[in-house]
Each structure stands twice: as C-alpha cells, then as structure tokens.
Design a protein that fits this description.
With 175 residues, the protein is α+β, with helices and mostly antiparallel strands. It has one domain. Helix content is 26%, strand content 36%. It has a 5-stranded antiparallel beta sheet. Strand 4 and strand 5 form a beta hairpin. The longest helix is centred in the N-terminal third of the chain and has 19 residues. Keywords: Signal.
Length: 175
C-alpha cells in the first residue's frame, strides 16, 4: 500500500476533526430556526414565561445568564422595575446535545484469479463530544417600585442587567 493511498482518509479525518472543533457557543439572540436563543410568552398582565436554549458549546451558566438578562429586559421594556421568579428550571436539551463521537477505519485487501486490490474505508460521526446542551425556563412576575423587601427570588431589573452585561455575547455581524 502506497503512502498516497493512506493520505486521503487521514486528510478527511483531519478536516472532520477541525470542523467539529469549530462549534461556537450560542450568542444572545432571539430563538433561531435551530431552536437556539431566547423566547418569551406573556401569560398574564404581569407574568411572562422566558426560555433560553444553548447548543452543546454553550455552558449552563451562560444559558442561565441569558435567561436572567432577558427577564430584566422584558421587565424594563414593559415599564416595570423589578421581577420575581415564580418557577425556574434548567435541563439538558436532548435535541441539541451531542451524542459523542465515533470514528472508524477499515483496511482490506483481496486477491484472486482476476487480480488483487486494496480498499480503505473511513467513517466518522461527530455529535458534540458528549457535551450537553442546556435549556432554562422561568416564569416571572414583573412589578413597579417600591420593591417588596426581602422577597426571595426577586431582582432589580436595572441592577441585574448592568451586572450581567459583560457576560452577554452578541451575534457577530454577517460578512
């Protein structure tokens, strides 16, 4: 078997590994067709359900920060000052989680009355390297000042937004 015969499968493997390594975290954005991003639904006059979904390259902390940041934005956009979390959960999203990676090479040869030959097969399946994709959801109640003192799970929207601003990764402009 010549070195040229082996180069093509290994070049394909290198390209596959390079593409798998290029996955980037979900930016802070409205929900995309892929399901990644944030969404919200108004449930009552002062109650909203917010959801934040990341891909397998997005950390749980980032998904939860995006959820809280969006809660602060909704609160302020609707003329309120603070919000309280009525219900909250963070789970692994099975549709966006990677299923690990598999790689295989098969090399075979044959010879007979009609000649001989060598065959090489290459297969790879990359599903995110066993990384989990997270989704967070919360129901919030929004209020105007004055804020109820010592109310557990309540947040000043302006302060929270200012404190989380540095953690928000915006989408890159398309070239």
């Amino acid at each position: 078997m010549s070195p040229e015969t082996l180069r093509t499968p290994f070049a394909l493997l290198a390209m596959s590994l390079l593409l798998a390594a290029c996955a980037t975290a979900t930016p802070y954005q409205p929900q995309a067709k892929s399901g990644e991003g944030y969404s919200e639904q108004r449930l009552e006059t002062n109650r909203y359900r917010i959801r934040s979904v990341g891909n397998s390259a997005t950390s749980r902390e980032t998904v939860e920060n995006y959820l809280m940041y969006r809660a602060a934005e909704i609160t302020l956009q609707n003329g309120y000052d603070w919000f309280a979390i009525a219900d909250r959960a963070t789970n692994v999203d099975p549709q966006l989680s990677g299923g690990g990676s598999n790689f295989g090479i098969g090399i075979g040869g044959s010879s007979g009355n009609f000649g001989s030959g060598v065959s090489i097969g290459l297969s790879s399946l990359f599903g995110g390297g066993n990384k989990s994709a997270y989704q967070a959801q919360a129901d919030i109640l929004v209020y105007k000042n004055p804020r109820t003192p010592n109310l557990a799970n309540s947040f000043d929207a302006r302060e929270l937004k200012a404190n989380l601003e540095s953690t928000i990764q915006r989408p890159q402009p398309k070239k």
